[in-house]
């Protein structure tokens, strides 16, 4: 009888241990690359908020929400690169194929880029001085010339071979199907993959007569402590490329309003006080975005999660 009681006690202890382990078992992460494939019933916004808030982040982004509406990439350079500067800068012609080319180089070499427009010429010159740039790579046909003899101007011939000569790495080509796919394609770039993005709908310029000069790679700037960075299919190429070149990950949402789906809401849950960077005017301003996050997270629908 004593043996039976002992066995029963052991079984009870094992059962309680298993039960406690089940109660305290770590839930599967919500905010992962597979988020948009999840059923809404499987998206817990409170858990997503905990994941978002517990991420390690650089001190200058803590408690901050930034909305960057600028289409040329200037604001993203100021936010990510200006504190420490950059030896090099890429300036791209404002065409889809050229911007894809520039973004491919920017992410691979961790160098910031600007999409050029005559309306921002003076701002570009000022940005060059603030960054301490001594080397510019022109991608495309651009009416840009240096006013300083200390500034080296490089020209991209637009060929795959030139990419290898500029970076000392062999690139593989990836065709982007439509303009709508551009932001996601750039967000998916990794500096170690050396991928050249090409537009299926628009040919790239070729300038075989240009001499090719190297554009050295720079170090990752985010220290692995990036804020949450979000964009949409309407976000600018340069802004996404600069966030990636800096070292951050960019989440592409279908729309600029997080309340439009539970998956979008999960990306920003708990981040009404940051750390969050939103790329594009489609997010409104900082006040509008933070209000949408608070409203969406605290709505009756989200409370049921």
Topology, element by element:
Elements: H1 2-23, H2 45-53, E1 65-68, H3 74-80, E2 88-92, H4 96-109, E3 113-115, H5 121-131, E4 135-139, E5 152-155, H6 160-167, E6 172-176, H7 182-187, E7 195-199, E8 228-231, H8 237-246, E9 250-252, H9 262-268, E10 276-279, H10 286-298, H11 300-303
Q: How many runs of DSSP E, i.e. beta strands?
A: 10
User: Which segments are poorly predicted (pLDDT under 50) over 5 or more consecutive residues?
Assistant: 9-25, 300-305
In the sheet with the most strands, the strands line up as: 1-10-8-9
Percentage of residues assigned to helices: 25-40%
Order of helices and strands: HHEHEHEHEEHEHEEHEHEHH
Report the biggest beta sheet as strand number plus sense, adding barrel if it closes: 4 strands, parallel
Number of domains: 2
Cα radius of gyration in angstroms: 24 Å
Termini Cα gap: 49 Å
* Beta-strand percentage range: 5-15%
Instruction: Determine the number of helices (DSSP H or I, runs of at least 4 residues).
Output: 11
Shape: globular
Class based on secondary structure composition and strand pairing: alpha/beta
- Average pLDDT value? 88
């Amino acid at each position: 009888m004593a043996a039976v009681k002992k066995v029963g006690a052991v079984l009870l202890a094992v059962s309680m241990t298993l039960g406690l382990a089940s109660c305290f078992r770590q839930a599967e992460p919500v905010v992962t690359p597979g988020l948009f494939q999840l059923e809404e019933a499987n998206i817990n916004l409170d858990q997503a908020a905990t994941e978002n808030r517990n991420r390690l982040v650089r001190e200058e982004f803590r408690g901050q929400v930034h909305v960057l509406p600028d289409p040329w990439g200037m604001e993203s350079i100021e936010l990510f690169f200006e504190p420490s500067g950059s030896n090099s800068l890429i300036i791209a012609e404002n065409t889809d194929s050229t911007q894809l080319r520039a973004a491919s180089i920017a992410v691979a070499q961790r160098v910031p880029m600007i999409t050029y427009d005559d309306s921002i010429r003076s701002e570009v010159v000022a940005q060059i001085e603030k960054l301490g740039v001594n080397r510019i790579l022109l991608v495309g046909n651009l009416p840009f010339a240096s006013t300083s003899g200390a500034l080296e101007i490089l020209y991209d011939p637009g060929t795959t071979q030139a990419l290898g000569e500029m970076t000392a790495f062999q690139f593989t080509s990836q065709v982007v199907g439509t303009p709508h796919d551009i932001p996601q394609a750039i967000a998916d770039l990794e500096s170690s993959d050396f991928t050249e993005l090409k537009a299926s709908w628009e040919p790239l310029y070729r300038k075989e007569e240009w001499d090719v000069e190297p554009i050295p790679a720079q170090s990752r700037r985010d220290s692995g402590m990036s804020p949450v960075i979000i964009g949409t299919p309407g976000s600018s190429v340069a802004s996404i490329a600069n966030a990636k070149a800096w070292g951050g990950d960019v989440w592409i949402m279908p729309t600029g309003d997080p309340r439009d789906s539970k998956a979008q809401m999960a990306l920003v849950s708990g981040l009404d006080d940051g750390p969050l960077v939103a790329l594009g005017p489609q997010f409104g301003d900082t006040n509008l975005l933070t209000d949408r996050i608070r409203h969406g997270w605290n709505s009756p629908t989200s409370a049921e999660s």
